[in-house]
Protein 1
Amino acid sequence: MNFPSRLIENAVNEFAKLPGVGRKTALRFVLHLLKQNDKDVANFSETFLKLKQELKYCKSCHNISDSELCDICSSHKRDHSLVCVVEDIRDVMAIENTGQYNGVYHILGGIISPMDGIGPSDLNIESLVEKVKNGEIKEVVMALSTTMEGDTTNFYIYKKLKEFNIMISTIARGVSIGDELEFADEVTLGRSIINRTLYEKGLSSK
Amino acid sequence: MNFPSRLIENAVNEFAKLPGVGRKTALRFVLHLLKQNDKDVANFSETFLKLKQELKYCKSCHNISDSELCDICSSHKRDHSLVCVVEDIRDVMAIENTGQYNGVYHILGGIISPMDGIGPSDLNIESLVEKVKNGEIKEVVMALSTTMEGDTTNFYIYKKLKEFNIMISTIARGVSIGDELEFADEVTLGRSIINRTLYEKGLSSK
């Protein structure tokens, strides 16, 4: 694409760095911005600068937070002996939305992915081991994606934690609620048969 | 969505103002930005501020430009008596890409759309009439979308220009090259039959 202006080209290139945004979409964003008034555009660009400069991470769970300790970690209503290990804040938001979880979280900030140059030392794993070592925790729930990278990270953390006297569990995998059995892939269906729930247990649990 | 931080929420809201970006996509953008280093994020936000502050519009055709007169308007190789009327710079870029047009442009900056509160006075129509009045122009080619709004704008400009002694044309509408006839919609196919090209003329024209 040949742009009539260097400024437009720079702006398009910046937008095109965002995930899933091509140069055509980026140009659409730029033209939209140009139609806004000066104040709105100033607001737009300052928000991201401020975000990066002022954002804090919770010192306990590494969640994004406005204060030193996030709302979940500082709440007395939560079970601090139950820790759910997730990849990023989107997973926290998804689990919080269910209203079914009352423990705290530990955000890894990514998963082990040698292809992208992300090793265990780039993630918040040491602080999790430290927390477990201090005896604060009774159970760790692994809630990572079932991809090659997720399974690797799961296994790595499991190996680090198995020497301690705690329970380690993983979220249930199975056929989604509302899904037709015939369309479920064989791995998911296979897992949901192996990890079937006994009726009494199923009825008594939430 | 409940966000763990006000800063995140603000950033998501800003991104979600962009056309076609929902709050989930906006959050993905924000998390992507958070993974970048400080300098990249500063660059990202400064680009848009600079864009809005420094961008100039060509005083002749209203195209986006780094200087007073855009590259096309200041070129001696272009036919300045042939003017193509388009909606915005994306159309200029699309026509320039074909390599088939040697005239100059006139960018309206939108089309007449009462639903969005855009009337003729919000567009660069007066300056087009002025140019035609000055006798600089021999032919005006209308290249607007064939929507209700595009047709209205076409008709409005036609009425404004018909008193002057110039040619007014519109780009050809017809079945796209490579399209199967049976799948063409009836209006397009109808138009392509009415405005059929004579063979001799077709062979002699580019």
Protein 2
Amino acid sequence: MLNHKNMNIPESGLKRVVIIGAGFGGLQLAKKLRRDKFQVVLINKNNYHTFQPLLYQVATSGLEPDSIAHSVRTIIKKTENFYFRLAQVHRLDSKLRKVHSNIGDLSYDYLIIATGSQTNFFGNSSIERYALPMKSILEALDLRSLILQNFETALLTNDLKERERLMTFVIAGGGPTGVELAGALSELKNFILPRDYPDLDISRMNIHLIQATPCLLDGMSRASADAALDYLKKFGVNVWLNCPVKDYNGQIIYMGNGEEIESANLIWAAGVRGALIDGFEVSSIDRGRLLVDPFNRVKDYDEVFAIGDIAAMKNDKRFPNAHPMTAQPAIQQGVTLAKNLNCLAEGKKMKPFRYIDRGSMATVGRNKAVCDLPWFQFKGFFAWLIWMFIHLVNLVGFRNRMVALTNWIIQYFQYNKSVRLIIRPYHRVQPEKKEKVGLMEN
Amino acid sequence: MLNHKNMNIPESGLKRVVIIGAGFGGLQLAKKLRRDKFQVVLINKNNYHTFQPLLYQVATSGLEPDSIAHSVRTIIKKTENFYFRLAQVHRLDSKLRKVHSNIGDLSYDYLIIATGSQTNFFGNSSIERYALPMKSILEALDLRSLILQNFETALLTNDLKERERLMTFVIAGGGPTGVELAGALSELKNFILPRDYPDLDISRMNIHLIQATPCLLDGMSRASADAALDYLKKFGVNVWLNCPVKDYNGQIIYMGNGEEIESANLIWAAGVRGALIDGFEVSSIDRGRLLVDPFNRVKDYDEVFAIGDIAAMKNDKRFPNAHPMTAQPAIQQGVTLAKNLNCLAEGKKMKPFRYIDRGSMATVGRNKAVCDLPWFQFKGFFAWLIWMFIHLVNLVGFRNRMVALTNWIIQYFQYNKSVRLIIRPYHRVQPEKKEKVGLMEN
């Protein structure tokens, strides 16, 4: 733990806005704050922004990790009164108006929590131990390595049960991440792995998607959910509805309906919760998120704001339990809060946040996507094109867009996913062994 | 250590050719052997081929690692009588005609050692401990992380000496790797880092290139060596000639001329040696390489061949100490040996290897390269274009070529190197601490 006074950031005479998190919300805010009124400090645990909607393509060898990550220092080009720090913030000290991090403390005039969300295992430590999350580039890379390692290992065994366990992939959670991941795995199964592993019977590769509720893609229209289910079934994915995952021991998945699936691979896309830092009063926290007013101000904290996944705003009738934990609310709150803070600096009144629902979409695979716009739904090839276009233009950085586009065009015509690379092997968590009796005597 | 009988590869009735290493030579051989005459088994420690000439661009944030790696299973498309195994071969047992690996033994009829080379620290364990090699994608990624971490750390200290130590990069070895790396680092210094770190005085970033002999680019023409030296000096690189690196303790580099450089970063590009496996007689080994006859057959081993960096062929008058350890001899030996083994299978006579020197080249930076063809030398913009063209067409995989081209075009016009990402932080080797006296008493 280092301790650099104020993270070596000079005093400027201006009010200091500290933003924690360079996700969709934090970036918008950092870009749009007036630098003649504020000194802006952006803190992030990585030196890059992660484009989370495409993590599943990294995990399934479709895109290289570097094309969905973009260096924060490159994104924020105007350097006047702007400071970036690579740090992990642990705790808020609102009395002293400070945050504590692994590289020292930093005082603030305004603090914005934009830390996003993290995987929620709902307190099941066994699932947390053995299942694979997919919320960061490192986790997506681990998953990519593991998928490929499984097939290399399967080649070496003649125990068909063990082979099938290695080749069975179970995804918990039928939201967009789960659906898109299941679709991408089915493309690997249908087009690519039979060429790579002619000695393995790839038809014995099983892909299961398990959803606790009666419907896939919660929050999207029934028509889109049904279409996605239909596509997945056509691609050979086993979809289980109304079926929560109860437990997992690294070998067997126990489901709510009493059935079991033998698999060495449980991918956990079943829930997220706010990535909270320590130091907030319990009264300001609602199920892992920070309660905010319509100006994104955290309840009971005058100088602290929260935006994006970590913020729970309750006044929107359409979303009484707060906005969905996706990119759109984060981006819009980042933009609105920047305007509001700029207003504050000019002595003007702040305006309450109003969420504009631009719709949502999910892709299932080649030529197949579903799209809900505010007024109508559509699906199929056109939805798939729109999905690609939207994701391309929202990717951060011209180079990343060009590289992703290059990949997608080549993949489409070659029926391929090219980055099937085990750059760093993934080391599986081994089942806990019972301690030997008499160990102390040795 | 697993033990799968013959790595789970079936007997085919054909003679089995086992190739260890999927570098330039091993790949050519695997592609060109007749599968109706041989069962071909290719073993590699990674599931991908590494395009080593561009590792320096990965280390300096110019190219993503995935664009210079290509899955072996994708490269070798014809699967009949071909087997790939991801394994690390440890030892040869020529009496039993077997190799031993981490996944089991494998018997062979013909064995081809194509294991390439590894970093040579010439027995200096302190340099081996503290210096950074750059022979693999993982090492290049570690270097990329370290370079960027250094600047993030330099921001946090006001100790100017410590800051300068972090911002000083010393490259040992003035061959193509050292020259190209020094050039790429100078581009970071001149165009990119001043924008990223406006608070740091990047003019205090020092780049040193240290060469033990009187001339850079040993083996190239004097004109090219002088031109490279000239370019590097213009770019601000401090070049030390006639100056071997004597020692390094993680803080200070001790040079042969008695001078010292304080630096936290010594990059070791000063030598390679054959990546030998155990089990060969001493009489077959020459300075870490396997002595081979003009048919690439290892001395005293009738069924074992060696190609590329690991092979030392002594009968070429132009190269009495064996061919240079570069891609060209490896590729040509791979092709020739494939023909010769195919001849052997048809009962025809083998032909001795004849190396065709196609010339060599090195790039120093933007618009600046040197190129030696057999009949003439040239340099500058045209040499730089040729360098890019040659490297692009030799990159394995259409996707990789397109992604590298996309990167290079954007870099050229934006004066940028875009993948400045610390995906996995590098953990520096800490100086060894003296053991506490009385530790056992605690």
